[in-house]
Amino acid sequence: MGQSSSSCSCNNGHEIYRPVIIGKNSGDIDGDDDLTLSLPDECLGSVFGKLGCLDRNSCSLVCKRWKCVDSKSRNRLVLLARSELSPCLPSLLSRFNTVSVLSLKCSRKLFSIDDAALSRIPVFLPFLKKLKLKGCIHISDDGLHAFSLHHPPLLTKLSFASCGFGARGLNSLLSNCPSLQDLTLKRLRKLDATSSTPASSLWPGALNVDGGDVINDHHNNINAVVAGDAIKKEKDVHNYCYKRSLRLERLCLKDLHNARLFIPLILSASASIKTLIVCRSSGNWDRVLETSLHGKTTSISEIQMENVQMGDAGLLAISSSCPDLQLLYLSRTTDCTDDGLSAIANSCRKLRKLHIDAWSRFGSRTIGDGGVFSIANKCSQLQEVVLMGIPIAIPSLNALASNCPGLERMALCNTDSVQDSEMAFIAAKFLALKKLCIKNCPNVSKSGIEAVGRGCPNLVKLKVKRCKGVTPAMVSRLRFQRSSLVVSLDAGSMLFDSGGISLLSSAVNEEEQGTATAMTNTNSTRSAAAASTTTVAATHVICSSRGALLLRSKFESALQLGRRRRPTEDNAS
């Protein structure tokens, strides 16, 4: 810490470093020797913030001042929430009473902290803003209810994963946490099994029947029957919703079941929600979106739907209710087609990022080139496009290039339609493109890569994966065309030297020529590569293939083993 230098001595052939205290005498330790005494507590706390967890814990044991500064400067605390922690939790939290982010994690196979320990957290952490519970299966609805009764004023983010409570505890949190803005729910099996719904206290009586969803207001005696797209007494229903609405801005649902349970939650938060993320959650999400968003203009700017049952009806509900949509992520949605994507293009003109992983069930109709063409013609603010499994053609690429001048990132994956002609068109027309990814496109070959090297003047990174027609030799030629271009190829981790030979390839050749020669040539090759990087910018080829990394590790292990065996054989001879 700036208060001592170090010296070393040898013990059994190993160097041992010992601190030497600099003071008036060699044996005196004076308070003036601690240079941190001149630092304010805020500066010392910022220094502690740069340290890792183990180093910071060690610093808290140096002296009382450091312990106090460490306690007051901690903003984030991560604890193993086993049952043994329950009696120690009050004293621990009272020490770190300025923590704003608390994470409690436990294995589902072990006993976690109980309801009593959870209920005391707001008392000891008045500045708590974010709370994350993972694997705490012994926390029940009663614990969440007792926690929410403290009405934590600054709590804005909650994340629950693999916990043991249900809808009643969530309703207590939603009712008693006035500042809650971010809610994440993952793998809540008890919530899936229960018949009650989250936010039912805010929007009572959400019930699913064969004829439709019946929403009852006990105070105003409102009975609204949702059957298809017709909503009766819409004005009274909307007034009630906005009166009792939540302030959620982000809602994330992952690995959950019974989609209809979340209709009241989305409905009560529709006035303020900006981000909706749904992943691997079963149920008919077309009905959820139609019921929750029908006839409203929301401020949602980001929607991510991954591995869910949703079709054009859900996209129509999004298009009619989300005019400010900026990010649309559709991955393996079952029944989405070009018609739904065209509706998005007609209504969501502010779209900036589009990610589509097309997937059809039993060979049915899915999103294709027509939907991309509609998006390209209507959404001129696009900056990022990721298309997977979509047979895109040159007319769609031409529409993207001419109507979206700010397009900077593009990925084309899992399609046979991308060939050398499409690559040449991209190189000639996409002048603002900075990052390009081509993955699993078997018809891309040498001429397509060379065309990209000659075009796209602003391109800084090119990623090529699983393209059979592209070899490392072709990529190495880009060095002479674009010296600063970063290329990612699934053929090993390589840095080309001035001769265009990769270090990995040279290491393999050196192994065949002999271990002793390999050691000398490896050093010379590395020095030559280092010299070349000082004069001319090298083209970095970053490996993203596990097979190539495994192959490289095998070669390196063989080289090291050969170096160890060679002196032994020489001594034996």
Describe what you observe in this structure.
This protein is α/β, with parallel strands linked by helices and 573 residues long. 38% of the residues lie in helices and 20% in strands. The chain is built from 23 helices and 23 strands. The protein has a 17-stranded mixed β-sheet, with no helix packed on it. Helix 1 packs across helix 3, helix 14 runs parallel beside helix 15 and helix 21 packs parallel to helix 23. It starts with a strand and ends with a helix. The N terminus is likely disordered. InterPro entries: F-box_dom, FBXL15_LRR, Leu-rich_rpt_Cys-con_subtyp. This is F-box domain-containing protein. Pfam families: DUF7885, F-box. One of its GO terms (biological process) is SCF-dependent proteasomal ubiquitin-dependent protein catabolic process. It comes from Populus tomentosa (Chinese white poplar).
